[in-house]
Amino acid sequence: GQSAGVRVQATPTAGGGSTVASATIAEAALLPRAFGDAHLDAISAWLTIPLDRLRVRDRLRELAVTPWGDAAGDGALLRLAATRAAVRRLLDATPWMDAAPAPDVAIAAGGAWNVAPGPAVALALADVLRRPGIRALGHDHARLLAPLGTIEDEEERRRVIADLRDELLVPLGTVVMPAGLRSGKSAGRVAVRGSVGETELELVPGGLELVDLPPGERAVVELRFKDPVVLGPKARHFAMEVTGGLGGLLVDLRDVPLRLPERLERRRDLLTAWQSALWAGLDA
After folding, report:
1. Which residues pair with 144 in a beta bridge?
2. What are phi and psi of 235, to 5 degrees?
3. Rounded to whole angstroms, how far apart are CA atoms 140 and 277?
4. Which band of pLDDT confidence, cut at 50, 70 and 90, is reported for residue 282?
5. pLDDT above 80: residue 66
6. How far apart are CA 69 and CA 87, in angstroms?
7. Which of 195, 9, 188 has the alpha carbon at shortest distance from 96?
8. What is the DSSP string of the chain?
9. Nearest residue to 2 (alpha-carbon basis) of 55, 66, 93
10. What are the backbone angles phi and psi of residue 226, rounded to the nearest 5°?
11. What are residue 237's DSSP bridge partners?
12. Are 110 and 82 in contact (CB under 8 A)?
């Protein structure tokens, strides 16, 4: 958000309820008040456009004054880079939340995400939420979660959420993120079986495989690795049901945590290649 970043985590309990932990971090605002060179470097590290340092600083200052402006073209790319950096600061400020199991669902909320199409938001979440596992991704596109949380009566709140259940979140897809892959030409194979047929792909360490899986579509994913990997448990063979979304199914075989090249040009080319695959019409 404009003044802070918020991380909320709900964990189911044995009795059928849930425990909720939350943190509001001023330093995790899109552009914190104490914006300095370290923040500028972190945002520039995610940029896919060749802007010089002074120009990036000037445009970020403009964004701080008019956070609703400059939301198309290069401005959208700059905003998404700033959002990635802000989420990274939020995660770094709340390490105690990582003691809980990796989430089954991750939701992006706030106006900062609205500059990008759903598939690009899915990639941005995968870029910064580097925890091994399989998770569905959603987007609070209408920004309703915060207002719904202000309804004090729990039963009334449940009724309203139930009425809005099918429109509340935009399904972005599912990301499969194993850790512990050995480098090489192939780590194994993945087969995706759904009502529209079967897709089989080679699992190449460092790659990002995209499988078309529309919203509402379900499929069974079977992964066979040559060596044991961490995907929740540690094993060679996994099979699970996943749901589709605007970004389909992302089989993310990149490093956990994500390591980007030091050279600016090489890093920018790599980020552009990943993002272009999920941002139709992107020219950057």
Report:
1. none
2. -165, 180
3. 23
4. low
5. no
6. 20
7. 9
8. --S-EEEEEEEE-TTS-EEEEEEEEGGGSSS-TT--HHHHHHHHTT--S---HHHHHHHHHHHHH-TTSS-STHHHHHHHHHHHHHHHHHHHH-GGGGGSPPPSEEEE-SGGGGGS-HHHHHHHHHHH---SEEEEEEE-TT--HHHHHT---HHHHHHHHHHHHHHHSEEEEEEEE-B-PPPSS-SEEEEEEETTEEEEEEE-TT-EEEE---TT-EEEEEEEEEEEEESSSEEEEEEEEEE--TT-EEEE-S-SS----SSHHHHHHHHHHHHHTTSTT---
9. 66
10. -75, -30
11. 224
12. no
Q: Please report the DSSP string for 32-52 in residue order.
A: -TT--HHHHHHHHTT--S---
Residue-wise pLDDT tens digits, 197-243: 889 999 999 999 999 999 989 999 999 999 999 998 899 999 999 99
- Name residue, tokens 């008019």: 66
Length of the chain: 284
Q: Which residues pair with 203 in a beta bridge?
A: 188
- List C-alpha distances in Å: 205 to 68, 136, 182, 225: 39, 22, 7, 11
